[in-house]
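Please discuss these two lines.
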Amino acid sequence: MVVFSGCGFERQSNEEASDAEAAQGDPASEVEAMLQESAASWNGGDLDGFMDDYWPSENLTFSGGAGVTRGWENVRTRYLETYWAPDAARDSLRFEEIEVMELGEEHALALGRYVLFQPGEEEVVTATGHFSLVLQRVAGRWEILHDHTSATPEADAPESGGS
């Protein structure tokens, strides 16, 4: 296999090509990588980078404790008003316990746990809960069609640290 880069080219071994193709074709790895990049955007204060994983459609749905939010702009507004409000403290985010199940060639279901925390020597977990995502592969990348996120009641949440 030949890989072109800029004006030059570089020959890639068949083994390297097979490894790259295998990683690219593994929905579990792709979705987990997408979620880690999403958390990095969140932690960097980049709401639009975080929202990049959501399907840019009026048919996008988000279900949570406040009900169902429909449409990409409305989901973005929900995050903006809840986590990016001028006086709101935005905690760091990580995803844990990620499981991905293929639902055919172009769809997947992802389950996992989110953790919002204040980093430091003594990490303080401020919120945690579980999520389920319905995803569709669009133009070679995964997009979230539906997000159902439920917070864990405070009594059940861990006090600090991760798993």
Confidence is low (pLDDT under 50) at residues 1-23. Helices lie at 14-24, 27-43, 47-51, 72-83.
